[in-house]
Amino acid sequence: MNLGEDTISQLRGVTPPQPRRLALYSHDGFGLGHFRRCLLLAHRVQEHLDNVEILLLTGSPKASFFQLPANTRLVLMEPVTKDEEGRYIPRNPQLDLLSALERRRDKIRRELLSFDPDLLVVDHVPTGLTGELVPLLADLKSRGTQLAIGLRDIIDESQSVQESWKRSGSNLLVESLYDHIWVYGNREIFDLGGLYNLTPKTRERIDYLGYLRRIRPNPLDQEILNSLRRKFPSQKKIVCVAGGGEDGTPLGSTFLEALGKNPEKFLGTLITGPHMDRSVARALINRFQGCRNLEILRFTTHLEDHLRSADAIVSMGGYNATLEAIAVRKPTIIVPRVKPRMEQWLRASKFSELNLLKVIHPEDLSPHLLKKTIQESLDIHEPPSAEEAGLCMDGIGNFLSRVEDVLTQQQNRVRKEDYDVEGKLLRA
Fold first, then answer.
1. Do domains 17-212+393-409 and 222-379 have the same CATH topology?
2. pLDDT tens, position by position, 411-424
3. pTM
4. Using an 8 Å Cβ cutoff, are 246 and 275 in contact?
5. What is the Cα–Cα distance from 249 to 345, expressed in whole angstroms?
6. Are 233 and 417 spatial neighbours (Cβ–Cβ below 8 Å)?
């Protein structure tokens, strides 16, 4: 019989160490990017750090599609999305926005105060969606929780971010309340502190961890390889990733049209993303079902294998998708989103200057231009590695070392298990 370490410790009269607690919050009003980044970090924490419990809070309704790491619990908040103007609206048509936001605040408060994390990492939005973390952050800090804000390399255009952060109070929160400011990027590529005119005090505290290397050099899954065999020796496999899918229809449709008339030259795989409207996805399938060289997948747990097996990649320009394409060093064409934020365009343009990829503005997108750009990309030798282009890709390792340091400092912290979360603290 095998006894666990805790059982052996109890038999010896030794109290096992308390699990360290890490909470990761992603608001996820649109797409899957923030949740996928938090999930990646949670997986790596559980692979490399010992005795850690993780709470993942997300507003993504598709989060349950993904496999969770060990000792990790998922909490789904009331989902919202954005309309064409970039304003938040509830995904549940039976709810008004105020009711949806109230449900989110109540659940976040209840779950975080009950979990009582040693460290809370907030992804992207310092205040939480529409300020839902305020004043809960102060409540947690009064209990001894360390607070970290995790920011991607670029948020949006400079003036837009400066105005929105001032309006929401994010700049004051980051400067005065957060213990750690972690940027998943390189200062040499995007100087976030300078770009958004943060105060000298805040800039001094920014820790640029480096980019997050999402794909590791694992061998291809043989079952996937067998399913990806080309019908013609001359075929080139092109994989198109339409982000979460919510606004991926123009790219997906153009991709299928560009490749569908060249069955002996191209084998195309479109991954629509789980947020693409089912009726739209069905219309694409009906429209292109006669093209034997095309396949349409709504979601796959083998995205890495598809990217590794590709001869070229076409993708929207989110942080995760771009770094996944760069990691496999395949010719890549990015068609970034430009509304309601310019973040994807700014990153893709910079990476294009570094010869890591090619970029097409969505207003210029057409089947002819996309096919031409794919062919040009295939004619070029292997693109440079991220490191050769000047990117530091040590973000995950640096994140783990920072988390380990914080959790070690917190190991003697006394948790407030007897707190009355309904009556003794400020209402969030």
1. yes
2. 988 876 544 444 44
3. 0.89
4. yes
5. 18
6. no
Distance CA 322, CA 338 (A): 15
Residue 358 parent element (H or E): strand 358-359
Can you give the residue ranges of every domain in the chain?
17-212+393-409, 222-379
User: Is the CB of residue 250 less than 8 Å from the CB of residue 281?
Assistant: no
Tens digits of per-residue pLDDT, 9-64?
Answer: 555 556 668 899 999 999 876 667 899 999 999 999 999 999 999 999 998 888 88
Rounding to the nearest 10 degrees, give the CA dihedral for residues 124, 129, 133, 135: 120
Instruction: For residue 89, count CB atoms less than 10 angstroms from its CB and return exposed for 0-12, middle for 13-18, buried for 19 or more.
Output: middle
CATH superfamily of 17-212+393-409: Glycogen Phosphorylase B; (3.40.50.2000)
Please provide the DSSP assignment of 330-346 as one string.
Answer: --EEE----SS--HHHH
How confident is residue 381, by pLDDT bands cut at 50, 70 and 90?
Answer: confident
Output the average pLDDT for the chain.
88
Q: Which fold has domain 222-379?
A: Rossmann fold (3.40.50)
Asked if the model's pLDDT at residue 193 lies above 60, the reply is yes
Q: Is the peptide bond before 135 cis (omega within 30 degrees of 0)?
A: yes
